Amino acid sequence: MSRWHERLHEAARQRAAQAAQRALHTVQRRDGARVWVAGRELIDFAGNDYLGLASDPRLSRALRDAAARGVGASASHLVSGHHAAHAELEQALARWFDAPRALLLGSGYAGNLAVLQGLLGRADRCVQDRLNHASLIDGARLAACTLHRYPHADAEAAERQLARGSGRGLSLLASDGVFSMDGDVAPLPALAAACARHDALFYVDEAHALGVLGARGAGSVAAAGLGTTQVPLRLCTFGKALGCYGAALVGDGAVIEHLLQTARPYIYTTALPPALADVAHAAVLLAQGADAERARLQQNIARLRSGAAQLGLPLMASSTPIQPLLVGDNAGTLALADALRARGFWVGAIRPPTVPPGHARLRITLSAAHRSADIDALLAALAHIVVGASNAH
Ligand SMILES: *Cc1c(COP(=O)(O)O)cnc(C)c1O
Questions:
Q1: Cα 108 to averaged position of ligand 1 atoms, centre (Å)
Q2: For the chain, N or C: smaller number of CB within 10 Å?
């Protein structure tokens, strides 16, 4: 083991030198946007609980009722683990997305691996936005296809990459609908048109758009006026606005059937506990009806952005609950996050490799569970820490 210890020690030393080390903070309790960590109450501006459902008592009740009928699925879906709770959730999701069919996956991460590995082979091409989620990059690796990454949100560059793919293989274009670390929305109509011109399958990851964008929270594709015809496959994850865990692919019937037959991250894993499928189903119904929470969320976004503008804080261009403040260097980002934490605010310090080198940032996320006073208090802390510090220079 001694050479292993040397390697691990050296890697840890480099992480520390670059302020790239990460730390776990254990949440003892959560209530809406309030969390208790190491005995202290913090206001959470780091999570993805956009509608405040993660600690909603209606979901806790749904989990308790579902768990009374048993917990585990006992097998993978295709062996003997596909329960009525799974089938009903798939139907509810297909209805929400106005798509023929849905397929449950253990997580969004597994879902992205499933799509790319199940659909693409060595001769095929995967064209992706440079800022797509890491799971989409990993999926392309698992597929062993060629991966082409176009400059962020540049539909013309995407089209040029699609146009070059005139071999015997096929092309799939994958994009986040809302970008997880930037908060901006992909140029979906332009990307869909490019895919149509080049016979490429368009796949959109709705992780941060589900429940937030579109009528009844149906996501970024619906908000752009598109549907299954233009976007034959979408990923929805249950861990963000739905406040649960798990994921599903929703779309064209032939595409879904092919994934069910071939996607290893679907086939070789135990099905989601049926009790969790029941809770996710309850969350789907709550999220569809959460227009008041979506309105509240929009008010919170507007309040943060106007307050930041008054302070001269350059939030990145985003109209979604993800409101990053670009800092640049790792150590500076970490210091700001620590200073905010000392004042009772939990904000993510996002550093490479999650974002490109030199683009470290505070990732401020908003929820319908935040009160106006929470936003104002965060702004006051930022004024003191960020604006105060730069005026002192
Ligand atoms: C969080 C996230 C995932 C992964 O989903 P999990 O259910 O948490 O595994 C996939 N894609 C994007 C864009 C995400 O933000």
A1: 5
A2: C
